[in-house]
């Protein structure tokens, strides 16, 4: 007892801050950045061999004015193929780790046997007291409805309310800005990928599409994107993009004798079909990257449902009071 009393009265030891260590680390990083900046190639420096080759073949061989896309999807197309499927593997890993609990299926009959035994013990179908069942059904039915402290948007909530904001959507200013910016960003991302004027092509285009979905979600709440952001839909679209990449690259091996070789006719410079398979690869990658990022973002957001205690457990721990 004396030991516990002395431990409880012992003053809490504050964390020790060591600013000297932080200063040394920041100074070291700053020195490395300074050295790297000093040794950057100047304007008069010779181009690397790969960059020089891309400048030489981009127009005559691929009919594209973007040498970066020639490197990414042409000269080093196999590397981009591997990087894309590394991203796909990362997306699959995140989805598997964050997958919500699925309903148990009794394939050997234990689930059905349990239901049969429960029906014999309680023919009324749940809980002995009819009033308790009625209260539980009413509570379950009202879980999805708005309570007096919930509002569709913050604009419905009175000013000066001390309670936290419970609205899913944001203010009218943010919603209007999202309505204006979302279509512009989506069209701009697809335009840059389709015409091949974006260095990197599908990767930044896919990130733009994922950003648009996240912007709509943040401004309007999950209900506005729930019809589109569904695992059954997004996973199928992502798989379609991955299969299109595989087909695009593999056809070069069968039709031209080399993996990632161009097998499409080249259109004039500055057109959508200029670049051959560069455009097909870039567009397919935009689909795969965009849907993959959406899956990762909403899978992580959805983890809060399973990682928080259930409402029934909360009531039990709080002595029957609903918190």
Relevant terms:
323 residues; mainly alpha; single chain; 0% strand
The major pleated sheet works out as: none
Helix/strand order, N-terminal first: HHHHHHHHHHHHH
State the share of residues found in helices, binned by percent. Answer: 55-70%
| Total number of helices | 13
- Tell the overall outline: extended
Low confidence ranges: 140-149, 306-310
Instruction: Give the N-terminus to C-terminus distance in angstroms.
Output: 34 Å
Give the mean pLDDT: 76
As a percent range, the share of strand residues is: under 5%
Q: Which structural class should the secondary elements be placed in?
A: mainly alpha
Radius of gyration: 29 Å
Count every beta strand, where a strand is a DSSP E run of 2 or more residues. Answer: 0
Structure in a nutshell:
The protein is an all-alpha fold and 323 residues long. Helices cover 64% and strands 0% of the residues.
Describe the structure.
There is one protein chain. This protein is mostly helical. Helix content is 64%, strand content 0%. It has 13 helices and no strands. The longest helix has 31 residues, at 277-307. The two termini are 34 Å apart. Residues 140-149 and 306-310 have low confidence and may be disordered.
Layout of SSEs?
Layout: H1 2-9, H2 19-38, H3 49-62, H4 67-75, H5 77-97, H6 110-121, H7 130-141, H8 172-195, H9 202-220, H10 222-225, H11 231-256, H12 277-307, H13 311-317
Helix pairs in contact: 3-4, 4-5, 4-12, 5-11, 5-12, 8-9, 8-12, 9-12, 11-12
